[in-house]
Design brief:
It is a single chain. With about 100 residues, the chain is of the alpha+beta class. The two termini are about 25 Å apart. Helices cover about 25% and strands about 10% of the residues. Strands 1-2 form a two-stranded parallel ribbon.
C-alpha cells in the first residue's frame, strides 16, 4: 500500500502493495491510507511504506522489454518496485482529488 506522500505498503503472507502520491505528507490522502494500513495490520499483515515522492519513475516508451521479462529500459526507480508489485496480492492506489 502506498500513501499520500508516495509511500507503499506491503503485507506479510497476504502481500498487499499500495501507492500514494500527494504533495501534503499528512493530508487527507495520507489519513485514508493510514486507516487502510491499520486495518491491514489489525488483520495480521506486515506493512511496508515506500515514498513514491522520492522515486523517479519515467514514462513508458512502449519498447515491450518488460513484456519479455527484461528490466525497464528507462533508468529510474521503477525496476525496484517491479518485484514488490509482482508479489502483491493487492495493490492500492490513492491520490488526492484536486479541483
Amino acid at each position: 500500500m502506498i500513501h499520500s506522500n508516495g509511500e507503499s505498503l506491503k503485507v506479510k503472507n497476504e502481500k498487499d502493495f499500495g501507492n500514494i502520491r500527494s504533495g501534503r505528507p499528512k493530508g487527507n490522502t495520507r489519513q485514508l491510507v493510514d486507516s487502510f494500513m491499520q486495518g491491514s495490520m489489525d488483520a495480521g499483515h506486515v506493512v511496508e511504506l515506500i515514498s513514491l515522492n522520492t522515486i523517479e519513475i519515467k514514462g513508458c516508451i512502449g519498447c515491450n522489454d518488460c513484456r519479455y521479462g527484461k528490466l525497464c529500459v528507462q533508468k529510474g526507480g521503477f525496476n525496484e518496485l517491479v518485484p514488490k508489485i509482482k508479489k502483491a496480492n493487492l495493490i492500492v492506489f490513492a491520490s488526492p482529488l484536486l479541483f
